[in-house]
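Memo to structure team: turn this sequence into structure tokens by end of day. - J.P.
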Amino acid sequence: MTLRRFGRSTPMMIARRILQGIAEIVSYLCMALLTCWSALALYYDLPIVRLRVLSAVLYLLLIGAILLLGKRNLYRFIGCVLCCGLVASWWLTLKPSNDEPWQTDVSRPAWIDLNHGHALIHNFRQCDYRAELDYTCNWSTRDVDLSQIAGVDLFMDYWGSPWIAHTIVSFDLGNGQHVAFSMETRKQIGQSYSAVRGFFRQYTLISVVSDERDLVRLRTNYRQGEDLFLYHTRATPAFAQSLFLNYAGVTSQLAEHPQWYNAITHNCTTEIFTFQTMKSQPHDWRILLNGKADEMEYEQGELAGDLPFAELKKRAYINSAARAADADPQFSARIRAGRPGFTGVSGNNGSL
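Reply from structure team:
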């Protein structure tokens, strides 16, 4: 009788133990992630700099005590969640500011006045580079006739992982003229970009409006280890003009009301898909892992060129052409010469 009962109950007991084991592993993984985020939030974002290390250490000791003294895993989990909730409640009260000691290249946020079919861009940036960190910035006011906007080009900038890229959107004004928008981290003097810091409240977001000899040449000719690819999209003039207005709106909004940058939720790519023009776009995981955004756009038929994607991407690589063009006033024309899609492109009503 005992053996028969043991035999019947064993599969159920094994399944229960497996589920309990999985639940325990998941709960400890969640506790580890919550604890790590909370400690780093204190370490990076606590306003009193000299207390950052101490506060992070004390927080870790508190979580350690909860794990040691908690009699059940459920109590430990609840304790970790409550502690993380307290840190998150404080963290969400941190407000961004436009009044900081900014680096020279992001010291003047652009804003755009719209009037009678024209866009007047204030603080249009044109930096003259001698080295990555040695430059002179010139700021001007530029008038754009919206009716002259004929298309949209997309730059993809990689600096390491093929899964993450920086995107620059450039508008074709005709006659070889382009206006480029780059949504970037606005860094203070002495700051450099850190992927880890990008998950916390270390940077605000800025919309840099510039020409390609500034935004593109910086990344191809002066920075090390960055690879740029240039695609022409099939956006119609009507769509391009609408997208430009979206960029103009968010650029002026950021100039008045600063917003935190976040490596996942508020960055150079996710901001594009909050525009009214882009809200009809289907959700795709490649919006977050934006190094694959060009592949996503290709699959949706938005990139011109009529080539297999691998060949299109190979021919979209512009570093050598940009280095050769360097300070040439025809920089934009030279980096496009011979690239697929830039001659005889027929538009459609697609999106970016």
